[in-house]
Amino acid sequence: MNYRHRYHAGNFADVAKHALLVALVRALQRKPRGALLLDTHAGSGSYELAQASRGDSLEREPEHPGGIGRVWAADGLPGAIAEYVRLVREFDASVPGASSATCRRYPGSPWLFKLLARPQDRLALCELHPEEALALCGEFSGARSVSVHEMDGYAAPRAMLPPPERRGLILIDPPYEAQDEGERVATALSEGLERFPSGLYALWYPLTARAGSGVFLERIRAACAQPALAAEICIDPRSEGLRGCGLVIVNPPWKFEGEAAEILGCLERLLARSGGASSSVSWLVPEKA
Hints:
This protein is α/β, with parallel strands linked by helices. 34% of the residues lie in helices and 20% in strands.
């Protein structure tokens, strides 16, 4: 799978991932002590959605109308989704000429982390691609408690953990361009847990017609003994492309499975492309009694 994110920003997968991340960060912040928010594959930081329809050489059908476009003005959203939409609206409002009718500029996870961060929290953003790393540096130039690192994000867990704060959320969200991407995610998780076993880890993965989640989840299960949840949403089981996505959450906050189920259940109804849409939250590695 080739997942160049600038073409997919604001799609259903971003909505699901980012709503869950908002809930995870807020759970981490229930304690006053500062925390590290580490993004191993940060991208360029933000995305102009008008560019989503322009590929490198061919016109593309934009995906954000079926993602952020469907929740932008929705009513009665659960707390984490409502806060996520509020943050996206706040970020988009900084665009000259922005209107409340549609989203024009979408924040990637680095900006969501920045908007959520308290003064005592710290951001570490990793990006290997030189152009995207340069853009990321420009996005956060002069930003307090934010560091940008042009490096292989898979090396970040062993290079940056454990954090001095002894608390943190580590997002591992690669583009899944290489055949061994799932294996590398599992290795990075294993290295992170060896150095920082109490950390909160969030691992994004795609669901496609060719690549189900089974092999990936088995690798993650083998890589950790800590409690882990698998939260998945499928918006169209008949799709030949990206039909859904998931987030593995290692060391999930107390009773997070209920909050994740509420979030994905709501998004399943809002984002569904067919009658076969579904969502689930299950224990990959159960909590010990």
